[in-house]
Queue: 3 jobs
Job 1
Amino acid sequence: MAKRRPSSGRWLQEHHDDPYVLRARKEGYRSRAAYKLLEIDAELQQKYGKKAALLRSGMTVVDLGAAPGGWSQVAVKLIGKTGRVVAVDLLPIEPINGSVILQGDFLDDAVLQQVTNALEPKGRADLVLSDMAPNMSGFKSSDMARGELLAEAAYDFISQVLEPGGAAVIKLFQGSEFHEMVKQARTMFEKVKVVKPQASRARSAEHYLLGLGYIK
Ligand SMILES: C[S@@+](CC[C@H](N)C(=O)[O-])C[C@H]1O[C@@H](n2cnc3c(N)ncnc32)[C@H](O)[C@@H]1O
């Protein structure tokens, strides 16, 4: 997540007044980001019925770029006690009951191995989530390139661990590779949608790629 300078008054004011921030505080979510995932899941169910829910009881879910833990909180709640959430981030994450939390750089092979090990004995996931975002430097082209690198790492991971028929939600930035990344996803999933949840700030270049029905 981008680091904010304390002097960044506009951001602080906006954050303070943000309805999703207020709601997260009230409902016990660690981040406003939780509502992006809830919204994506709700829309899916609205369109295809309850059976199409992204998060279902007993699932194994991997949450890449999970700090401070909003998405993992949502996942743990919806998959119940028989499910498993494996969360990883560069930053520390306070424990979340029902999840395995790992700290490290997902681009590092040793960390990738730890995430894969946490999926044993099956070694597979039903859903891969990635909300990974680089620390924004303000230089658009390099920020976009770093964002693309993270999304590519998520795609590689999907090809290693996702169950056939599984699903993914991957954060994509609207940079030069955006259309290519969407095109690539269409070769990996039966259904692909690009979504911009209302909880995602309009000025942010982030979008989410929703992939359903992974084709091995
Ligand atoms: C927008 S935040 C995620 C918010 C989270 N989904 C939630 O609901 O609380 C993006 C996260 O990506 C993480 N991140 C960026 N690069 C990463 C990397 N190479 N490996 C692991 N995490 C990374 C950042 O540390 C940051 O916490």
Job 2
Amino acid sequence: MAIDDICRAVLTYNKAQTAALVQAEIVKGTEIARILTDGLIAPLDEVGKKFSSGDIFVPEMLAAAGAVQEGLKYLSPFLAQSGAKKRGTIVIGTVSGDLHDIGKNIVAMMFEGAGFEVFDLGINVEAGRFVWAAKEKEAQIVALSALLTTTMPSMAEAVALVREKCPGMKIMVGGAPITDEFARRIGADGFSIDAPGAVDMARRFLGTVD
Ligand code: B12
């Protein structure tokens, strides 16, 4: 099973093998979403569990992330491929104190693929930078990512500041610890559990549902 082989390559921190197997699946015509979800994201969940149980540590987590990023390089042209008309502008970033960016990058690529112009502020983004970028780029949507329970307060702070300084801005949030209930509590307009859901929500926000 070739998809399982990709998982194994990630779980043995083998960048070159992950890249080669992802390329082979693309050539075979395997659905891109399947390579992404079952081949690259699934093993990261496994890595998270092993980290929680103390079987692995930060260096292994970093090595697995490196392998996934290597595989993603080959998927990104497909995810970001767009024949679609320009739909609007989105500023995205991982909130202050948080260095996780794999999920945020996937969301950003899929926004691009759906025809949005995307300004990615990267990781560890202070609340004020979201406000600055949203105004500078005349964005309609600000999208915030957080992967740590300890950075959820930074997300709340960023939502509050964007709300105050950018009236009318649509704000969406996501990341593993984020829930619908939390999103509502901090005053965001929406939450999605994954990247395709984020794209649907952005389309709904701008009234550009096909
Ligand atoms: C890889 C990884 C790392 C890598 C990150 C590399 C990188 N470039 O991103 C490194 C090694 C750097 C790392 C560091 C740390 N990590 Co870490 N990490 C992970 C791991 C294994 C995978 C994360 C990931 O990429 N998942 C895959 C992506 C695709 O999923 P995702 O990010 O959730 O994104 C999807 C959705 O959430 C959604 N989404 C994401 N963003 C957005 C945004 C919007 C707007 C929307 C709508 C949707 C959306 O769409 C995405 C695609 O479908 C997770 C475990 C896990 N299962 O999550 C732990 C995990 C998040 N890390 C954890 C911890 C503890 C840490 C450290 C504190 C460890 C330490 N002691 O130093 C540091 C913190 C560093 C920091 N300040 O940020 C814990 C967090 C626990 C908690 N209570 O918060 C986890 C859960 C592991 C665990 N089980 O304990 N980590």
Job 3
Amino acid sequence: MSFKEEARLITNAAVQKYISVEDAIDIVEKTWTWFGNGEIIMPPKITTDMSSAGVNGWFNSMPNYIKPLDIAGIKVVGGYSDNKKLGMPFIKANVLLTDPHNGLLKALVCGDWISDMRTGAQPAIMAQRLAAKTDVVTIIGAGLQGYTSLLCMSKRLKMKKVYVCDLSEKARLDFISKFAGADFELVNCTDNEAACKDSDIIITVTTADADLVKASWVKEGCLVMTMGSFKEVEFDVVRQADVIAVDHIAQSLHRGNLKPLAELGEITEDSFDVEIGLLLAGKQTYVPDPKKRVYAQIVGMGCPDVAIAETARKRSEEDSTFNSFFDMQG
Ligand SMILES: NC(=O)c1ccc[n+]([C@@H]2O[C@H](COP(=O)([O-])OP(=O)(O)OC[C@H]3O[C@@H](n4cnc5c(N)ncnc54)[C@H](O)[C@@H]3O)[C@@H](O)[C@H]2O)c1
């Protein structure tokens, strides 16, 4: 028996030809809504930590099926600490798309831009729904995900001042230079406390495992969003929050800032007031309140990556100049 398995090889440049930043944000929002509506099958991601074998990295396997797009796929994304020395980003991602009905490979898609942009879209969408005010923002972690976060936030939110905090002076300056001409003020900041105390929104998106934000620095009405892979804020920031929000409840108990609190038994699956997909799908309600402190952990799901990759693949079908195919059975 013979059959054809002609897959597309979609490069990072091709992805950016077919998908704009605004498209990426819209697709993340739509995908979260589908997730809230129960239209996505997505087991929790699993991590392969290679450090005990002497490899300085880890990667997550993030499979899912998206019914409204009728596509199956897996995002494989890792953090590689030695990449910086080679001039490569810390995060590296790829997305594999398959036909859900027969398993044939449809495309191998470079996931770098997709992953970075979907990560940045997350706090933009969360803040639109959860923040009481968006005038003053602190970003702790002026790396790549910090950059895409502010880029996407600038497309969706009206901001006046952004404090840029990072251990590295170079990272802060490079970050600020990328927003030359922005219609908000950027402050090169070495004092997390002063920045946080003045902020309506605080985002941590670092590679640190540390208390970067103290509870006493978080004012009433502030939205704190943690996105890094480890602990980034004092336990009391979570304990003293009036509202706790996440992108995915099950994953949040095993990852990032909430992992140690879940291990202490202080955070359980009943602790969450908002799961963003349910809110977007209209199955929960939340009205931003200037008196409430909101804590949100965004660990990231694989379905937005698969949805963006599939949209790029479909758009490549409409492009008569696209010519990057490979025959898996040949
Ligand atoms: N939640 C998600 O969906 C998601 C997606 C991708 C990556 N991540 C995570 O986001 C984090 C950042 O990734 P990235 O690609 O931007 O990495 P990056 O290396 O480009 O940037 C990280 C920045 O954090 C800074 N930093 C480290 N320790 C610090 C500290 N103690 N105080 C202040 N700044 C500090 C570094 O100087 C660097 O500029 C990682 O933990 C990564 O695993 C999360």
